[in-house]
Specification:
This protein has two domains: 1-17 and 36-101 and 199-250, Immunoglobulins (Immunoglobulin-like, Sandwich), CATH 2.60.40.10; 102-192, Immunoglobulin-like (Sandwich). 4% of the residues lie in helices and 43% in strands. The chain has helices at residues 62-67, 94-98; strands at 5-9, 38-46, 78-79, 82-83, 87-93, 107-112, 117-118, 121-125, 129-134, 140-144, 152-156, 163-165, 171-177, 185-191, 196-198, 204-210, 213-221, 225-233, 238-245. Strand 17 and strand 18 form a beta hairpin. The N and C termini lie far apart (40 Å).
Length: 250
């Protein structure tokens, strides 16, 4: 096994969208795992004093106020210096241009739960269907605001069946909001491959199954922008790639 190489990135970059050429997807062969794939793991840190969560006024909907009278924003979640809800994904690499990568399962899920979107950040592939559930005893609304896909906006009463939406074009990241409860926000990263992850509360993430090759890896946060790094993955390689974010004014 090759030794682990640790890379730490803390330089801020301007935001950019993931929009590869997908016109040749149907002519590419499906990638077949060989056992030589590598893994990228890492931690997302936050330097300095993080912004404090802000209390949300949900009194316009008594159901939401009753479910959680202490509702706070979740755009910045820092625990012991580690940053959650960072979307880490492979933006480019030769292997991504040579093959297609089928999704492991047909759908992914998000829910209106406790008058917020759960999860707050998620990733999916273009072949998958996003299912949106309403777990609350009130009417919700789901409005996606993509740039490379059609706009989608639909209300959902209590006990309704999950809504379903599919994004045909890769796009990172698509904002989703609730027009009836404006504090409810989420982001969906839509990619043509499965090489993405979302950092947990301890800042950790893991991207596995990467074929050997050279890749550009991006870490994106809704408040603090994005960073990128070049990573070379060898046979059965394990790389540790860390990112550090901070407030732009620091």
């Amino acid at each position: 096994m090759l030794g682990m190489i640790v890379l730490t990135i803390s330089v801020m970059f301007a935001p950019a969208r993931y929009s590869p050429n997908t016109s040749a997807n149907q002519t590419r062969p499906i990638y077949q795992p060989t056992g030589s794939e590598g893994t990228i793991t890492g931690k997302i840190s936050f330097a300095g004093q993080p912004p404090q969560p802000r209390k949300i006024d949900s009194s316009a909907d008594p159901v939401c106020e009753g479910v959680d009278p202490e509702l706070f924003t979740e755009d910045v979640i820092v625990t012991a210096g580690k940053l959650a809800n960072v979307f880490v994904y492979v933006r480019s690499g030769d292997t991504l241009e040579w093959y297609t990568f089928p999704a492991a399962r047909p759908d992914v899920s998000i829910a209106h739960h406790g008058c917020r979107f759960v999860p707050h950040i998620l990733g999916m592939q273009t072949q998958q269907v996003l299912k949106i559930a309403n777990d609350d005893a009130t009417t919700h609304n789901t409005h996606s605001i993509p740039k490379n896909n059609p706009d989608w906006n639909q209300s959902q009463p209590q006990n309704a069946s999950p809504l379903e939406v599919k994004f045909n074009n890769p796009e990172a990241l698509i904002p989703i909001k609730d027009n009836q409860h404006p504090w409810e926000k989420a982001y969906v990263g839509v990619l043509s491959h499965p090489f993405f992850a979302v950092s947990t509360r301890n800042g950790s993430y893991r991207i596995g199954g990467l074929p050997p090759g050279q890749y550009t890896v991006v870490a994106w946060h809704e408040r603090f922008g994005e960073q990128s790094a070049e990573v070379s993955i060898g046979v059965n390689d394990k790389k540790e790639l860390n990112f550090t974010f901070k407030k732009p004014e620091d």
